[in-house]
Amino acid sequence: MRFGVALPTCVEGMAYPIRLADHEGIARLAKHAEAVGFDSVLVNDHMSTMPYVREQFASPPRFYEPMVMLTYLAGVTSRVRLQTGVVVLPMREPVLLAKQVSVIDRICGGRVTLGVGVGAYRAEFASVYPARAKIPRGELVAEGIEALGLLFSQRRATYRGKHFQFEDVELYPKPVQDPFPIYSCGNADGTIRRAASAGAGWMPAGMPLPKLADGVARLRAYAQEAGRGEARIEVAPQLVLCLGRDPDAATANFLSSQAHEHLVSLSASTLRGFDPAGFAAQNLIGSPEQVVERILTLQAVGTTELAGLIVVADSESEMADQMSMFAEEVIPAFAEEGAHQ
Fold first, then answer.
1. How many domains does one find in the chain?
2. pLDDT for 5-37, tens place per residue?
3. How many CB atoms neighbour CB 135 within 10 A?
4. Distance (Å, whole) CA 135 – CA 53
5. How far is the CA of 220 from the CAs of 78, 95, 226, 228, 229, in angstroms?
6. Which domain holds residue 108?
7. CATH number for position 121
8. Which of 107, 112, 119, 122 has the alpha carbon at shortest distance from 148?
């Protein structure tokens, strides 16, 4: 089992209060994650403020572009993997994204994992690309993954999709990693199919344990159908982390947090039917001992990695403290099987 933490790059006003951490604070948290023993750090992707955030806060949030931030973090870290979760492919042009990823992977010595998905907020997509607003985002993601695969692997790549096209592109340098790892991120069946057919991993978000187990079963079946039955495909659910000596206090802390408000905002999309009490019980919320037991149950249904833990915190120091407690009291329980290399 490997462990990673989600950095607050594009989540002010959503999972965190506005003015939680600037680029230097994000770098400090990345270095702290590496120092205490996490395996990866994760950045996410937003270009415009969501309407509910504008209504709630007088000041706009700061969203730090993920590929720029990964370049910055590559220079201040040496071991942790640098992951996206997610890059919103419907808002990205494949050739430029492939060039960015390839160069960053070279700069950091082959430590990048690219998590891609449709994005949680259709309103943001429609705001940034109104001309594409009626296009099914799943189609854009499917084409984007195909296009990236060609650009990373072929000397000269041509792609003629319905929505993305390019001709005879010679893209160098290639990434250090070959094949380059792409995770398909999201809960929909199409997301699982894309992970099974062409991905290195599947990253769902906020899935109850029975649904996660069903998703893993479908992932394996689809991989078999695609002729990838022997391939190792990581299962990396993204979960919320809130530790406390008193389990009830930890749950209360989560329910009163900005992270909880963010999850409520996703109840009409990524987290349909969001139930706060049930969500707390199925995530890493409680005492370190309880969290170890929950990870064991996740492992039993096929989880191989927890790469994007969303830490409940109202300040940079509180986030660092939660990371330290997790590293000291949870990660060692999995050390024998290689949780941390």
1. 1
2. 999 999 999 999 999 999 999 999 999 999 999
3. 14
4. 25
5. 33, 30, 10, 9, 7
6. 2-337
7. 3.20.20.30
8. 112
